[in-house]
Amino acid sequence: MNGSAVHRLAIDLVLLTVLFWAVDAWAASVMLVQPPSPSPAMAEAIVRVRGELISEGFQVEVMDGLKGTESRSWLEQLAEACKADAVVAILGDETPDSVEVWVVDKVTEKTVVRRIPFQPQSDHAPKTFAIHTLELLRASFLEIDLRPSSRPSKAKSVPPAVAHFVDGEKPASRPKRFGVEIGGAAVIGFGDVGPAILPVMRLGWAIRPSLVAQVAVAGHGSQASVRTDVASAQVTEEFAVLGASYRFVLGRHLRPSLSLAAGALHTRAEGQADSPQRGRDATMWSFLLDGGVGIGLVLAERFEVAFATHAQVADPYPAIRFDRSVVATSTRPSLLFTLTVGAWL
Questions:
Q1: Which of 293, 309, 193, 280 is nearest to 250 (CA)?
Q2: What angle do CA 269, 340, 11 make, to 5 degrees?
């Protein structure tokens, strides 16, 4: 890899770092306070609660509580000191069939205390307890009126993750699991192969709201060209990749994403040369690695427009030769700029 390619990859890493920082700055935070010595079943339940909150876009920090600190003022002071949007504390005295849970909600400025069913001897106890705890937190947040037109101008702004978490409580006609996107991709290489435009189609399956398995195919587009004084070649590329995309929540309409995929690249070159030389046609298959960063704009409940930038690297990379000399290379790396329109069904 030459110096310019390394420089470009370094720039991509910086951009990805900036994106992570921006998403982190927008994330809402939850402080999860666990008992000083949780039982194995309770420890598993807390892990489940933490995992579900992270998947919803929250930053979560877990800390041990201290015996005798189960008070509203202590928890509110903890939320203020940690700048947390909510504190979920499992500090109440345990009974054979329930545990006391406190929720200090700084968004609606409420404190809620409930006894949640918990039977450690049951195999389903951790899962059931986690579900009830999340429902308690969501119920507290549900008092927010998320419509901007009716929200007081001086009211505390609602973090995007909280809005997304509350939206999950709203009844939906059916889950949005399967996605279809169609659009175009502009391919720009750095090895003297000209740009090209490719139609692209992407299919997605939502494993969970933030994680999507994807298949993308592109091809049958325009031909890139390579020219010298004595010869020329028309280069056509087609590819198919399988991978995953992690989607973030940035407000109610923006969905930043990071993706990683791998697959196959098919390259075809049609050579032309001045007499007495003769052009040749050649084809090649390569392993393709694809990494991307993008952002989607939600237009309606099930429709969105997405823009993404992808960096692709092929091994072995295609090389165009005139008179046994390499005059151009492709996908070493190449950049793709995609614009798609999609629907979730």
A1: 293
A2: 70
Q: Retrieve residue 100's tokens.
A: 């006391």
| Main-chain phi, psi angles of 274, to 5 degrees | -75, 145
pLDDT digits (tens, 9 = 90+) for 30-71: 777 887 777 788 888 888 888 887 877 777 888 877 655 556
pLDDT band at 304 (very low <50, low <70, confident <90, very high): very high
**Boundaries of every domain in the chain:** 21-167, 174-344
CA dihedral angle for residue 20, residue 175, residue 158, residue 102, rounded to 10 degrees? -100
Instruction: Name the residue among 301, 4, 5 with its Cα closest to residue 179.
Output: 301
Nearest 5°: CA angle at 264, between 343 and 269?
110
Asked whether the CA dihedral 164, 166, 167, 169 is positive or negative, the reply is positive
Instruction: State the pTM of this model.
Output: 0.54
Closest CA to 88 of 118, 128, 55, 61: 61
CATH number for the domain running over 174-344: 2.40.160.20
pLDDT of 256 higher than 80: yes
Q: 21-167 in CATH: which number?
A: 3.40.50
pLDDT category at 94 given cuts 50, 70, 90 is low
Q: Assign 194 to helix, strand or coil.
A: coil
For the record, the structure tokens of 52 come out as 């579900």
Closest residue by Cα to residue 88 from 124, 126, 140: 140
